[in-house]
């Protein structure tokens, strides 16, 4: 199985696949992170956040293929988060060595995002859309499918039907969040 | 709200360099364009955060279960050793069989209720919404009977499709095969969905010839789940 194949598998069934990887790498990560004198609860938090960041960067298209193994990516992100944790808790002195990573994670979104009011409302109201709307938005914005792909995948008559349906879904979302403002 | 073609292309990742320039100019000069783009960026962000919430919950649940199970692990060591011994014998004897069943489990999931999803905040349910309620609530024993009855009354092919999916979910594979074959003859928009589920039903029966024929048709015509069909074919061969 090649690396890109693995990424597709991850996104196809993220809950199952991520939990499997989470369990597989956990002991190694704990052992690695303990060398920084951090308590186990904080390591567990950092470890979880590393997976969520990895997932987010897969979803937003910033990781489209891997130049290294998934484990190396997760550990690099985890290492970044450990340093962030140490900085916040003033345990890291300025003279410490910079992070040495095996993979480039410079262009990734790694910090915990604070959502705007509109993003919070959207997140809540997306759940109120019909299943078909949720699927179309997910296919288009998260799975990188264009209108033609969606037409074929969901067996629509033509791409214009998909386009109108997507526009209706966005309009409905606007109406829903407008009501709550 | 019609989405501007350039915004569409931005999210598809297909802007040419020239279009990219035009896109950036519009962002600066056209406030409606800017707003429409920002809105869709927020929709994408909200979708990502929803997905992350779901994964976070799953990781926490998994961890909780892991902790619980590690406490009783010591007590089970002896039985696990014996069980592993037995399982490896079974595994060696049935490797191929369990592979097909495993592939079936990995690929089968009940098709979402797109016919009549319940609307939040609305107390009045249409008849179709009521019909789909047991399916929505995963009460498949009841759902299969309702779909059967409604199909007889209305002859609407989608009832046949959902009856097939429900039968398959309940493990009534032979019944599901008959239903999907009948559904496909209706030649409606659910036909291609039925083909995918029919392929899975044959996979469950381990009738690999028929599974392959159907999967090849799905891949050739690029219909519903064609990418999964392609992958499944690779694994079967």
Describe this structure in words.
The complex is a heterodimer of chains A (181) and B (237). Helix content of chain A is 67%, strand content 0%. Chain A has helices at residues 3-12, 14-34, 40-59, 70-88, 117-126, 131-142, 147-154, 159-180. Chain A is globular and about 55 Å long. Chain A is built from eight helices and no strands. Chain B is extended and about 70 Å long. By secondary structure, chain B is mostly helical. Helices cover 80% and strands 0% of the residues of chain B. The interface between A and B is large, with 51 and 47 residues.
Broad shape of chain A? globular
SSE succession of chain A: HHHHHHHH
Average pLDDT number of chain B: 86
The biggest beta sheet of chain A reads:
none
Estimate percent helicity of chain A. Answer: 55-70%
Largest interface: A-B, 51 and 47 residues
- Class by alpha and beta content of chain A: mainly alpha
Looking at the structure, what is the overall shape of chain B?
extended
In DSSP terms, counting alpha (H) and pi (I) runs of 4 or more, how many helices of chain B? 10
Radius of gyration of chain A: 20 Å
Report the portion of residues of chain B in β strands: under 5%
Quaternary status of these chains? heterodimer
Work out the number of β strands of chain A. 0
| Low-pLDDT segments of chain B | none
- Unreliable runs of chain A: 1-5
Rg calculated over all Cα atoms of chain B = 24 Å
Strand content of chain A: under 5%
- List the total number of helices of chain A: 8
């Amino acid at each position: 199985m090649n690396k890109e194949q693995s990424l597709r598998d991850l996104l196809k069934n993220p809950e199952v696949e991520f939990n499997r990887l989470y369990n597989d790498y956990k002991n190694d990560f704990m052992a690695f992170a303990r060398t920084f004198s951090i308590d186990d609860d904080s390591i567990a938090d950092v470890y979880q956040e590393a997976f969520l960041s990895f997932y987010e960067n897969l979803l937003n298209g910033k990781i489209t293929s891997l130049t290294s193994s998934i484990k190396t990516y997760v550990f690099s992100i985890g290492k970044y988060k450990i340093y962030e944790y140490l900085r916040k808790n003033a345990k890291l002195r300025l003279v410490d060595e910079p992070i040495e990573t095996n993979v480039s994670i410079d262009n990734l979104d790694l910090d915990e995002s604070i959502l705007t009011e509109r993003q919070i409302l959207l997140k809540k109201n997306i759940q109120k859309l019909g299943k078909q709307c949720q699927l179309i938005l997910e296919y288009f914005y998260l799975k990188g499918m264009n209108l033609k792909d969606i037409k074929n995948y969901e067996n629509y008559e033509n791409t214009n039907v998909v386009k109108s349906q997507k526009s209706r879904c966005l309009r409905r979302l606007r109406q829903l969040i407008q009501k709550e403002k | 709200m019609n989405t501007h073609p350039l915004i569409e292309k931005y999210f598809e990742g297909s802007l040419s360099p020239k279009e990219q320039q035009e896109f950036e100019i519009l962002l600066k000069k056209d406030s409606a364009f800017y707003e429409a783009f920002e809105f869709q960026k927020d929709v994408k962000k909200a979708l990502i955060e929803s997905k992350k919430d779901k994964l976070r919950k799953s990781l926490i649940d998994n961890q909780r279960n892991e902790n619980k199970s590690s406490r009783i692990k010591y007590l089970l060591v002896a039985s696990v050793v014996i069980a592993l011994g037995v399982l490896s014998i079974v595994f060696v004897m049935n490797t191929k069989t369990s592979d097909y069943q495993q592939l079936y489990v990995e690929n089968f999931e009940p098709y979402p209720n797109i016919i009549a999803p319940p609307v939040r905040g609305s107390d009045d349910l249409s008849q179709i919404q009521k019909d789909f309620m047991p399916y929505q609530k995963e009460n498949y024993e009841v759902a299969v009977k309702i779909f059967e009855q409604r199909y007889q009354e209305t002859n609407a092919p989608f009832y046949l499709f959902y009856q097939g999916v429900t039968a398959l979910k309940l493990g009534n594979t032979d019944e599901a095969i008959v239903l999907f074959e009948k559904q496909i003859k209706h030649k409606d928009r659910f036909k291609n969905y039925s083909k995918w589920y029919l392929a899975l039903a044959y996979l469950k029966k381990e009738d690999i010839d028929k599974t392959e024929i159907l999967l090849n048709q799905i891949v050739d015509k690029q219909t519903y789940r064609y990418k999964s069909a392609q992958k499944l074919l690779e694994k079967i061969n």
